[in-house]
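Per reviewer request, we include the raw input and output of the structure prediction for the construct analysed in the revised manuscript.
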Amino acid sequence: MAFGINRVSFKTIVFSSLTVWTGFYAWRILFNNFAVEVFDASATEVGIIQAVREVPGLLAFGVGALAVRFTESKIAAFSIVLLGLGLLLCGASPSLVMLGVATVVMSFGFHYFEPTNSSQLLVLSGNHELGRIQGRLRSYESMAGLGGAGLIFLLTVYLDFRSAFYLMGGLVTAVGLYLIVALPSNRGKEESRTLKLKSKYWLYYSLSFLRGCRRHVFTTFAIYLLVKNHSLDIQTISLIMLANSGITIFTHRLLGTVSDRWGEKLVLVTSSLLLVIIFTGYAYITFLPVLIGLYLVDNVLFGSSIALRSYLRKIAPSEDVTNCLSFGMTANHITAVVIPVAGGVMWNAYGYQTTFIAGAAIVFVDMLMASLIPGRSKLSS
């Protein structure tokens, strides 16, 4: 599939996503153990790095600015190169500070790729299949996570953390460079892009903001809790990621089908209700198998973003999609520089329970806001 790429299509979108998510999963699996075992990072230090990692997401509106001048296909390819370079720099980091800098480089690549690639997919799709086509892509991304987790599991048996970063970073960078050369423009001459925040998309931006708040709590501290409080090693974390990817290969497609058939509102409200239960469970349950199970269910529910993007595409014309997605990602990351640090400080001062209860409160508000989305019949009309 890769060597035959000469146009932007669903296959090229999938191939790009496979590359990015394999690299991102490699970073995600390696980071906590690398930070703790090599640099003896504390909860506060991990929180700070995770907060700084989200700064590129806060600046994701820059994608909309770049799209005024460059096509989405070129932005996506350059983003892949940047992610690969970030992984290489992680492996070369001599200190925790430099690991944070390298993580920011990687994060710029990831956060600029996501809205760009998603925009290409939504514009290619019809309203009747928005959920299904996103579900297929997310399923392939889960396969990439499966491959990334499997690679890290094997690599860390024979190689140290740094060598694993070097190998994965080199592969991702090479693919990105190839795509820069191979992909043509994916925009007609009559098409144009503008950078403008439009008030009519306020509900999409609000939900993006709230989902970002809860995501930053869980992605920063759920795995950290398993490593710090339960002493899970890198191989066990890799196995958890393998299980997560294996499950979401099927559940993403299911969520996409449910979104198309029953509407975006049902998917978003139900997922938020379940997340309130999951956050509360992480605060009070100490039995490790149950915590791992809750972590897997939470990752399944991350797929509900399919419904949020389907909702956006149904209310936004093609020329607004990239702009809205980039501003939506910025909204998703507004508190990214605050919540990981605040969560780490709360953890150290009052215990980890406080951090997860705060997350449950945020998800409850998200559920109330999702209930404002029009029903399926109104969006389809």
